[in-house]
Design goal:
By secondary structure, the chain is an alpha/beta fold. It has 16 helices and eight strands. The radius of gyration is 22 Å and the shape is globular.
């Protein structure tokens, strides 16, 4: 399907960033919101992003004006009547998103695709309030959407493959990296990242450590490009809490984040946006990690193992459930979470027999969330141990 015009519904930071991406690709886009002041702020934000490119010599002033002209800022329903695709980017409430989808279903042409930018909610539950569930899908951009390359394309229970194929092609036009996912709570990146954050929160509580202690080791050992607590503060602890609740309800206790995250949210310490989260923030915000007591080598090794193996186990569950293939999961975790290696490639490199033995030991100490996955046990039993044997989760030239 050819997409001639796009609508983005919800002109907050994410909606504005998504509209910016379409304008930069010279695709006409309507940015729709019920609040004209929010639209004014979005217009200023988009202009500032483009002006930044002009300042750096990556865009001419004339091209900037041409791309700005691709965006129609509107509070009116009439602006949506001729779009081929509408992407909702309203707050993460299923009820609100369903209301938006009912209205879009009423307004848009019959063949138009309705997409949600949700980070964790069920696409099928949104599709079910429309008369076109086969043309409803997820198109999950990552924050900040004007720089992050990954887009998760999520198929609901009734989504037509032609609809997801259209969103994949469109993402490529935006110079993004699309990854196709079968619907499940949290999709790929947020489900895996939340598994890691939950494990690190347990480690923090058990060892009475500060966020600084843990984030310093995470970055020094290159487990992730930034500390998990810095990342959580940047994303918003209210969002992290909401996602953790969705995942715990779906998958059980392994996603129980403990008490600290919920208590911070109850105190309205939501991270950078409120000036306090796991860290305090000045104006302008500072993510500097102050000095604190270093962890022992044994604690550092335990943290690295629990972080990496929590990621691997959740990634493997996703693959074994048929939600995404190994390559897509690895691409998603590199492009969407900034990991130096995808979890399957990292396991193959370490040696699957080594990973298996580590998980056996970890499961005895910490319980069934670290039980070796079925696929891992099968590969090890066949002598397919990763890079060193020429085959593991991937094939290698010997």
């Amino acid at each position: 399907m050819y997409v001639k015009k796009v609508a983005v519904v919800g002109a907050g930071t994410m909606g504005a960033d998504i509209a910016y991406n379409f304008a930069m690709a010279n695709i006409p886009v309507v940015l729709r919101d019920v609040d004209s002041k929010i639209l004014d702020k979005a217009q200023e934000h988009i202009r500032a992003l483009m002006q930044g490119r002009v300042t750096k010599g990556r865009l001419s002033a004339a091209d900037m004006e041409k791309r700005l002209a691709q965006i129609q800022f509107s509070t009116q329903d009439e602006a949506l009547l001729d779009v081929s695709l509408a992407i909702e980017a309203v707050p993460e409430s299923l009820r609100l998103k369903q209301e938006v989808f009912r209205e879009l279903d009423r307004l848009l042409p019959p063949l138009a695709i309705l997409a949600s930018n949700t980070s964790a909610l069920a696409i099928t539950e949104m599709a079910n309030v429309t008369t076109r569930p086969e043309r409803v899908a997820g198109m999950h951009f990552f924050y900040p959407a004007h720089t992050m390359k990954l887009v998760e394309i999520i198929a609901g229970d009734e989504t037509d493959p032609e609809a997801t194929a259209t969103l994949v092609r469109l993402s490529e036009e935006l110079r993004k990296i699309p990854v196709l996912v079968q619907e499940c709570p949290g999709f790929v990146v947020n489900r895996i990242l939340m598994a890691a954050l939950t494990e690190v929160l347990r480690f923090k509580q058990e060892n009475h450590l500060s966020p600084q202690d843990i984030d310093r080791v995470v970055t020094a050992r290159k487990l992730a490009p930034m500390g998990l607590f810095v990342l959580a503060d940047a994303l918003g602890l209210d969002i992290a809490w909401e996602v953790s609740q969705i995942l715990e309800k779906a998958y059980g206790d392994r996603f129980n984040p403990g008490t600290e995250l919920g208590e911070l949210v109850r105190q309205h310490h939501l991270g950078i946006k409120t000036g306090q989260g796991f860290y305090p923030y000045q104006s302008p915000p500072s993510n500097a990690i102050p000095n604190s007591t270093p962890m022992s080598p044994e604690q550092q090794e335990e943290l690295a193992n629990r972080f990496s193996l929590a990621i691997f186990c959740e990634a493997t569950r996703l693959w074994e459930e048929g939600r995404a293939n190994q390559k897509s999961i690895d691409i998603a975790m590199r492009a969407g979470a900034g990991l130096p290696m995808g979890p399957f490639a990292a396991a193959d490199k370490a040696g699957l027999d080594v990973v298996y033995d580590n998980l056996k030991e970890m499961s005895q100490q910490f319980g069934s969330r670290f039980a070796p996955p079925t696929s891992l046990a099968q590969l090890v039993s066949r002598g397919q141990l990763g890079e060193k044997s020429g085959r593991g989760y991937f094939h290698y030239k010997m």
